[in-house]
Amino acid sequence: MGRGRVQLKRIENKINRQVTFSKRRGGLLKKAHEISVLCDAEVALIIFSHKGKLFEYATDSCMEKILERHERYAYAERQLVANDSETQGNWTIEYTRLKAKIDLLQRNHRHYMGEDLVSMSLKELQSLEQQLDTALKNIRTRKNDLMYESISELQKKEKKIQEQNNILAKKIKEKEQAVAQQAAQWEQPNYRVDTSCLPQQQPPPSLNIGGNSYHQEAPELGRNGLDLTLEPLYSCHLGCF
């Protein structure tokens, strides 16, 4: 059968207790060294025997450094607990103050809306009326300022649009003048007839009959103003026969 579970209690025999202390102390120091090496941890171990003899182990023999770090950590923990308690009390006071302020604001809001006026005295009503008059005056002043600013902005936009319209009208007028000039140029003839190259109109032939001269009327000109009459090849004088 296996060994049963050993009950932990104080060893009454002094010799056995000393032997057990030596064995367990060595094993505990060994375990502390192993965990510091394997896990890269800072370990500090302090053991006092029943006779008050000190046994200790510290990583890299820096017991004071580890103890100082432990002291800072413990102090921070105590301060955190104290601050939590103090903060809790401060939050209670702050809650009470904010709640009273909210109640006051809600009551004033109801008064400004014309509600819950029964509990107010004459002096309070007069003060409320004065506050409302002042607020109304400020509101109207601000409204007028905004209206003036809006009107001024609209006037600036109107002026800018008018200038743009004038520029566009000027461009349209110049364009119409250019088109009119171009149309007038197209209406004029592209060439002129050189009349110097045309044959000169000859006077009508004259007939001399019995000493009397007769002039033949000039035939009508053609449609284009050209002389279409045929000049006689020979001048016939009847007087020669």
Describe how the helices and strands are arranged.
Layout: H1 14-38, E1 44-48, E2 54-58, H2 63-112, H3 122-187, E3 206-209, E4 212-215
Antiparallel strand pairs: 1-2, 3-4
**How would the global form be characterised?**
elongated
Low-confidence stretches: 213-241
Radius of gyration: 65 Å
Q: How many strand elements?
A: 4
Portion in helices: 55-70%
Largest sheet: 2 strands, antiparallel
Mean pLDDT: 77
Q: Hey, roughly how much beta strand do the residues contain?
A: 5-15%
What is the helix/strand order? Answer: HEEHHEE
Structural class designation: mainly alpha
Distance between the termini: 190 Å
How many helices? The count is 3
Q: In which order are the strands of the major sheet placed?
A: 1-2
In short:
By secondary structure, the protein is mostly helical. The chain has helices spanning 14-38, 63-112, 122-187; strands spanning 44-48, 54-58, 206-209, 212-215.
Structural features, described:
The chain has helices at 14-38, 63-112, 122-187, and strands at residues 44-48, 54-58, 206-209, 212-215. The protein is mainly alpha-helical and 241 residues long. The model is unreliable at 213-241 (pLDDT under 50). Helices cover 59% and strands 7% of the residues. The strands form two sheets. The protein has a two-stranded antiparallel sheet with strand order 1-2. A two-stranded antiparallel ribbon has the order 3-4. The longest helix has 66 residues, at 122-187. 0% of the residues are buried. It has three helices and four strands, in the order H-E-E-H-H-E-E. A hairpin with a 2-residue loop joins strand 3 and strand 4.
